[in-house]
């Protein structure tokens, strides 16, 4: 079986590679060196054949995995060049060369795409590393922040907190602002303030002609709509975001309870009842009820970011009254920055928060695969049984995260931004951390079983920030009612070879040249080309 899929993979690679085959990247190197300052770092990896025999430049042995936080070999191609842009002018110049010479360009900001898509999805592309465009300016008078696209969440949390502000984003401090915000950006403050993309006021971006454009509610209005929620890698390369900041919570409280697997079904049912029937939405949006389920235990956490502690206490009492007696409970409270830092290092203790969020240069890489589904009704009892059975057969590390998606998110009109999932109650992230290569395939299959056990109760939609290359019908899954509108955005420069539509796989490519993309296009029924290698 493996061999059959390897053959399919190799055959497909060969076709793709041959379509994109070039005698060399000499013209590209010539163009870049004529337009970019000599101080700009450019790497031509030796792993790309076209770089190996050039007399014009020296290729470099470069470990491409360093550019992605996802370990595990999901990146199966090598770029022609990686350019370390220092400012938007550099981005413009790279794009000019790419358009002139028909190269595909991909931006890499934090490198945290779940599938490594900041490295693109095709051979001999150009990767622009945006990491150094990472400035952070806070305007405390109007409560806005202006950020270079390569800034990471940790430094933004740290800097904004100095002014009692924060951003309503995810907690992992190493995630890059650009990919995160363009795809939505969901976090513990989302019930209170919506998604990060809901607070984007303006963007500066480079289009396929190499022009620096301003995108806001009066300029490039379709792009302003699309770039708030449709994901990175589409239409333009964003170089700067202006974001409405939110007040940082004065305190973050958390109460968590833990049960062993014998209570799994009851706890899962009661958790869902609380979300659907006890009308958590009637509680304030300061409350968040998360549940983690694994084959060894379950944990429900109530987070509270308000100051009316009565509300928090009532919810805790209700949780304890409705659920079987937990094996363990835990309560803690901390200031917002310490709370955020815990995602960086669980045992913050006496650690210096500045070091954790701002100064630490090395960040971890992850070996995981994730799938995700939204729900607008509780999972039925028979499917909960199937889910629990599947869970019990796990032979590796895994966790299923149940996270609410209601609150302020659903008060915003669905047509306001490209993010279409405004009426769902919760989402589940199904995650495994393969511990060894040999068992990876088996664990992937197991993940699929767990996912399928509760698939039919879901809305069958998912969140682009949790992108999964194995999803068929991805346009519908990620974009739902906005497919057509996104499809119609033709941000094509006059006379350009770029086909101007959304690329063939979300987050796959910024703009493509007239090189035909092998077997993809807009047929929703197609699964991304390399999916077979990593699944089944
Ligand atoms: C450990 C971890 C925790 C996470 N937690 C959360 C969470 O709590 N909430 C949440 O919503 N998401 C979360 N995510 C998902 C994360 O938001 C997305 O993977 C996001 O796309 C990462 O952005 P990035 O800039 O780091 O990634 P990259 O890999 O650099 O980019 C992601 C995509 O955006 C494109 N892109 C990058 N920069 C630009 C740019 N300047 N202009 C245009 N396109 C660009 C890339 O080409 C790629 O297609 C998490 C991911 C990880 C790995």
UniProtKB/TrEMBL annotation:
Signal peptide residue numbers: 1-21
FAD-binding PCMH-type domain location: 75-248
The keyword Signal is assigned to this record: yes
Recorded GO MF terms: FAD binding; oxidoreductase activity
Keyword hit for DNA-binding: no
Keywords linked to the UniProt accession: Oxidoreductase, Signal
Domain of life the protein comes from: Eukaryota
A Pfam match: FAD_binding_4
Family, as annotated: Belongs to the oxygen-dependent FAD-linked oxidoreductase family.
PANTHER family: OS08G0158400 PROTEIN
Protein name, per record: FAD-binding PCMH-type domain-containing protein
